[in-house]
Specification:
alpha/beta, Rossmann fold, 2 domains, seven-stranded mixed beta sheet, three-stranded parallel beta sheet, 10 helices, binds ligand LMY7XDAE, methylenetetrahydrofolate dehydrogenase (NADP+) activity, amino-acid biosynthesis, NAD(P)-bd_dom_sf, one-carbon metabolism
Length: about 300
C-alpha cells in the first residue's frame, strides 16, 4: 500500500495501512461479540503526566472503542508507589473482562520498569514486553509480539512479499524495537545484523542492507549516502526538533536524502507510528481469541 513516489522512492503509507488493519480488527471484534457474546477488553495504565504519553494513551482509548472493544483507563499520579502499581496489575490480571494490559512507558524514575512489565500475565501482555514473550519470540514460538516491530514487519511483507534471503540491518538494540525487530526478520529468513551507535563503519554496513530499519532515537542520523539504491527503509524514529523557529517531527533517517536513493521509505509522521496502536488492537483481539481457545483472524499476528 504505497502513495506517490517522491524523489524516486515509493512512500509507504503507514497511516492508510493502519486504518485498514483497524477495520480488520473491528470486523473480528464484531464477529466475536456476535458469535460468543464476548467483547475484548484492553486496560491501559498511565503513571504520571508526561505530555506525549498522555496523547498516546488518549489515542489508544479512542481507537480501542472505535474498534468495538472495551477500554479501561487507569491514570495514576507520578508519585504512585511501585507496590500500588503492582497491586493494580494483579487486579487486572485476575479480571476476566480484561484481555490485554499495557503500562505506558516511560515510567517515573523511581519505578523498576522490568519488574512492572514482568508482573503482567504474559497471556495479557499485549505490548509483548514480558520476559516470557521475549523468550518465546527469540525461540520462534507463538508469542505476543511488540507492536512497533510487528507493524514494521507487516509493512515490509506488504511491500516486498517474501523476505527470505534479504540482508536486513536493524540500527538500534532496544528491547522494545531493535531486538524483537531482528527476531521477526530472522523468523522471515532474512540475514540480520543488529547495529548500534558503537558499530564500526555503520555507514558501510547500512549500504549492504536490502532492508534498513532505523530505531536509534537520533534525529536524521542515517544519511542518504548510507542507503543502498532500491533498498526499503523503515524509519521508527519519532524525534521532536526545533528548526527554522518551528517544532518539527523527524525520523532517525534523513528523509530527503534517503528518498532520493531508496526504493521505498516510511515517512515520519505517517509511517510506522500509526501502526503501533493498530497492532496493539490486533494483539488485544489475538489475546482474547487465545484466552478462549478460538481461532485467530488471519493476518493479525506474526
Ligand atoms: N507501553 C508502551 N509504551 C510506549 C510504546 C509502546 O508501544 N508501548 N511506544 C511509544 C509510544 N507510542 C505508543 O505507546 C506511540 C508512538 C507514536 C505513535 C504515532 O502514531 N506517531 C505518529 C506521530 C504522533 C505525533 O505527532 O506525536 C506518527 O509517527 O505518525 C503512536 C504510538 C513509547 N511508549
Amino acid at each position: 500500500m504505497n502513495i506517490a513516489a517522491r524523489n524516486g522512492a515509493d512512500i509507504i503509507d503507514g497511516k492508510a495501512f493502519a486504518s485498514a488493519l483497524r477495520a480488520k480488527v473491528a470486523a473480528g471484534v464484531a464477529r466475536l461479540t456476535a458469535e460468543h457474546g464476548i467483547t475484548p477488553g484492553l486496560a491501559v495504565v498511565l503513571v504520571g503526566e508526561d505530555p506525549a504519553s498522555q496523547v498516546y494513551v488518549r489515542n489508544k482509548g479512542v481507537q480501542t472503542r472505535e474498534a468495538g472493544m472495551a477500554s479501561f483507563e487507569h491514570k495514576l499520579p507520578a508519585e504512585t508507589s511501585e507496590a500500588d502499581l503492582l497491586a493494580l496489575i494483579e487486579r487486572l490480571n485476575a479480571d476476566p473482562d480484561v484481555h490485554g494490559i499495557l503500562v505506558q512507558l516511560p515510567l517515573p524514575a523511581h519505578m523498576d520498569a522490568d519488574a512492572v512489565i514482568n508482573a503482567i500475565d504474559p497471556a495479557k501482555d499485549v505490548d509483548g514486553f514480558h520476559i516470557s514473550n521475549a523468550g518465546l519470540l527469540a525461540t520462534g514460538q507463538k508469542a505476543m509480539v511488540p507492536c512497533t516491530p510487528l507493524g514494521c514487519l507487516m509493512l515490509l511483507r506488504d511491500r516486498l512479499g517474501d523476505l527470505a534471503g534479504l540482508n536486513a540491518v536493524v540500527v538500534g538494540r532496544s528491547n522494545i524495537v531493535g531486538k524483537p525487530m531482528a527476531q521477526l526478520l530472522l523468523g522471515d529468513s532474512c540475514t540480520v545484523t543488529i547495529a548500534h551507535s558503537r558499530t564500526k563503519d555503520l555507514a558501510g554496513l547500512c549500504r549492504g542492507a536490502d532492508i534498513l530499519v532505523a530505531a536509534v532515537g537520533r534525529p536524521r542520523m542515517i544519511r542518504g549516502d548510507w542507503i543502498r539504491p532500491g533498498a526499503t527503509v523503515i524509519d521508527v524514529g519519532i524525534n521532536r526538533i526545533e528548526e527554522d523557529g518551528k517544532t518539527r517531527l523527524v525520523g532517525d533517517v534523513d528523509f530527503e536524502g534517503a528518498a532520493a536513493v531508496a526504493g521505498a521509505i516510511t515517512p515520519v509522521p505517517g509511517g510506522v507510528g500509526p501502526m503501533t496502536i493498530a497492532c496493539l488492537l490486533a494483539n488485544t483481539l489475538t489475546a482474547c481469541c487465545r484466552a478462549n481457545g478460538w481461532p485467530e483472524p488471519d493476518g493479525l499476528a506474526a
